[in-house]
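FW: tagging you since you asked about this chain on Friday. Here's the raw sequence from the shared folder, copied in full. Didn't touch anything.
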Amino acid sequence: MGRQILDASLIANEVIDSWQKRRGKGLICKLDIEKAYNSINWQFLLKVMQKMGFGQKWLDWMRSCISTAKFSVMVNGTPAGFFSSSKGLRQGDPLSPYLFIMGMEVLSVLISKAVEGGFISGCRIWRDRGQAVHISHLLFADDTIVFCEAKKEHLTHLSWILFWFEAASGLKINLDKSEIIPVGEVEDLNEMAAELGCRVGQLPAVYLGLPLGASNKAISVWDGVEEKVRRRLALWKRQYISKGGRITLIKSTMASMPLYQMSLFRLPKSMARRLEKLQRDFLWGGGNLERKAHLVKWEVVCGDKKKGGLGLRKLTCLNRALLGKWIWRFACAKEELWKKVLEVKYGQGDFGWRTRKANGAFGVGLWKEILKESDWCWENMEFKLGKGDKIRFWTDQWCGSHVLARSFPLLYALAAQRNATVGEMWDQNLGQGGWNLRFQRDFNDWELDMVGRLLDALREQRVTLEEDVVLWKEGKGGLFKVKKAYNILTSPIDVVFPISNIWVDNVPTKMVFFA
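HL: got it, structure written out here
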């Protein structure tokens, strides 16, 4: 499924968006596993690991790890004896999540086999009659979501699969907490829900703690975030907290609460203003949010400490930095499912480094909104040369601090192949390999200097057998850093500030605040 929880939410919303824009009908089955870790069968787990190819020595280790644990019950503050369990995994054991995922892999295989046999059909995503990808289910830990056509027999087959899985693994679906959610106008919905034995839900819903099937422009999906911040403020209402303590609480709690949702969804400007107002009022007025004078502009407060600010962050810029990370992740990803979905749905562009521009009306898909951050992201990315078959010689940044078309505009105008890749401009037959640059005409004497400078720039570059890769300019090792991206997006404050004399480790923050 993927290592990041956000991947599953992105795929789920894109699937719903595809259904809605095609005016198709479908069902989303959100399944809740009852007491997931406590009920899994040990013999089932060991059999799964054996089928996966684990050796007998490893199986003996795992059997010992999961079956020798002892439990005790506290009676009047003292443990009253110890007892063993016959099934389940221990909460908090670092092995438990991995073992549980292995068990859930069986459910994934069962659903996949049912799709292959035509007993369940997921959502088929395609573009212009081209390559298609089928999404039938998404698993992340014990959260399971199944996509199928709005047909009663498909739910019958799904109920059989869940029954077989429960019999083998001990993992039971809690039908009281599970639900089917219709996409489009679905008839006989209550009958279908009765077939599976669960309730009927509706969009927008919540999946993995994030909105599912909500409009991109809907501000209501952020109401829960604002309510969480207000509830947290209520806990601090009657406490005296110094200015330094308020800064710490804003950074560690108030500013971090929206981060999870901001990592995938665009934060509306009106909601950003409301959340920042809560932060401002708390900073200057305390937990009661009293209307006290704001002694310093919020822009200055959000500045870097090196520039005289307090190191708080503007939510709009932080949101853009978090969304921009997806642009970099897409360029670096190889075979991840979420990338395949986006490539098929929106089309592949620029040798797979990005998708094509997303046209059409906004729906519940998230990628179209994320693509708005492409321009500034690509301005801060560069290529590391490998084979050179996915890098354009003139218009991609791979040699120097600018693209060659910008550094040598006259030579670019004379180039015979302006869209040629680096690999096409490299001739392996020239000795140990060399550059074979092609132009429309011979050069004048006064143009030779320019050609010499281009060859000097290319001297250190060589085509290799490795794959071309994308690097983030400001990140260590070429990795994307949200902090660096945020600094790019914020307007620098040109102030000379004696940070070493003010922000001293031995001085409390509440004192430094007034320095």
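FW: Residues 219-314 form one domain.
HL: agreed, and The first strand starts at residue 26 and ends at 34.
FW: great, closing this out.
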